[in-house]
Specification:
Rossmann fold, homodimer, alpha/beta, globular, DNA polymerase, domain 1
């Protein structure tokens, strides 16, 4: 028999702990509009949380255009500019700080793993009150492939010193859930990124909550004890 | 046997013909933040398309606050201000103008029925190229109750001179689909407002398309012929 394992929680950041998904969506839309690329907003929403590289590749396929390296660099800079103009107003999602404090107090390992770079993630981590010097935070800069590849979550589990196959990946997007499956972790979905329950369940969520407050209220359902 | 009826199409506006749902969402969020009310963005997204009165009632229930008439008036003005700042950049959704032109050319009756007031709907109707003097457009100002009540769609069918029970209500939100059921029309859902296929189907959509272009490509599936 396999020894009992301590459950750990590996959190996505945008839309899972902080209320920033819609800001990212419109920042991408404004950036694309500025370089003359027309894409419906809902298609951008459905791609948020993916690696930026895969995001622009998917976009190129959908719009039938080739993006030069120069355009890609410009898009990234414009997105950072427009997102930055809103990100100081970003709020932690309800219960986010309480949930992380509960886990810390109960010595349950947790980490944050985000497809964002430290440049955009840094300011919202500060708003959330998470210090990457004291907590395990894996950003896109630290791994070769971002979501839906499992690398971010694998790196987070390794840095925590926990086994990924006893971890829960907590996220709001189907990319988190697909990455969870590829990592052989369990997926927990949140509605707080704006996707529907069924989308999260179909992409592998074994449980769906509204947001961190809702999960904290039901923490016993998903192994939240020492 | 009931006589064969001409199918007519009653369209929602925001998120169905024009790409404005996310602008409305963030305009509401900015307005609420300005008066000190904190609500997660996804909860606003899930309420867009509802009557403004029901929207603020639901919000009051969810946040456990009472909103005075003064606050409600201020919220409406702030939303109009923030939405207005973005609405000149709104684009028709792919295929919207082609779909309406196809219906007109084929003498298939169509109308627009929106929970928005003419003040916010006017500018985007202009971008869409629809003139309320020449086409049937029912705005919130013209009926007592907006969606999910069926009044807007009933008024649209009546003004077209068609039977609501042979009409299709085309919209992106579950409020459109619920209103369609209450009116005994068939509901056609679009993904272009950012909701998932299953949400639309569960609220009554008998068919779901990505956007107007996708419906136009499959118009024979839903009675699009004279």
């Amino acid at each position: 028999m396999k020894a009992r394992q301590q459950t750990s929680f590996l959190f996505d950041l945008d839309g899972t702990l902080v209320d920033s998904v819609y800001d990212h969506v419109l920042a991408w839309h404004d950036a694309l509009q500025e370089v003359g690329i027309e894409v419906s907003v809902w298609r951008l929403h459905r791609r948020i949380g993916m690696s930026g590289g895969l995001f622009t590749k998917a976009l190129a396929r959908e719009t039938g255009q080739e993006f030069s390296a120069g355009i890609l660099e410009k898009l990234r800079a414009l997105h950072a500019k427009y997102y930055g103009a809103r990100s100081m107003r970003t709020r932690p999602l309800p219960g986010a700080q309480e949930l992380l404090a509960y886990l810390t107090d109960n010595k349950i390992p947790w980490a944050i793993a985000t497809s964002g770079r430290i440049e955009t993630a840094g300011p919202v981590l500060k708003i959330l009150g998470v210090d990457p010097a004291k907590n395990v935070v894996i950003t896109r800069d630290l791994v070769r492939y971002a979501k839906p590849d499992p690398d971010l979550f694998l790196a987070a589990a390794e840095k925590l010193g926990t086994d990924i196959t006893s971890a829960c990946v907590v996220g709001d997007s189907i990319w988190d859930m697909l990455a969870a499956q590829r990592a052989r972790a369990l997926g927990i979905g949140y509605l707080s990124g704006g996707y529907g329950t069924e989308e999260l369940e179909r992409s592998g969520a074994y449980r769906v909550y509204e947001d961190p407050a809702d999960m904290l209220a039901h923490i016993d359902e998903v192994g939240g004890r020492r």
